[in-house]
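seq as requested:
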Amino acid sequence: MNLALIAVVLIGCATGDLSHEENLQLDALLDENVVFEFDAMDAESISSVVEGSFIEVKIFNLFDKNCDSKEECGYVTHKILKSGEDFVELTSSGVIQPYIAPTFKLQSESEAAEFQQMLNVVFPVFFTSGQEIYQENDTWVFIQEESFGDKNGVIVNVDSDGTILKIEDGEAIERNTQFDGNGEVER
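struct tokens:
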């Protein structure tokens, strides 16, 4: 699977019920008005956490005739993880779990800092000053940001050896709470 195929898949759903002539017209329209850029993300610093490379796909929509260049029209960004033959769109933190390096263990503050660095690269937040990490038994909590008083982040469950069992997004996280296994907090 190559990157051009990923781009086609991202917009390919619209062509399913079209006639051959309509498909040709849509292809010409897309060729003229949609620009794809593929950039490798600097992820060398997190290679000990995740096996694979990261690609940022920018899709520029030039349909707006009020802009003269792709930079003026804006774009949508998709982040892709390539591991072996797999290409996976990074839509949530849990998508990364199958690609965690088998040698990576989450048992110490330094390993938690490495994991936090990976989160910052793959899922950046505007302000990192409110970030915090804490552990409750076999659960590590990575607060990524605070919004309207709610702390949001990533919840990671590990076994006794520090092997990551589950990664999930969490909202309205507070210390000393119970996690229900679905990314939600029970109070």
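The chain has two domains: 3-89, 105-186.
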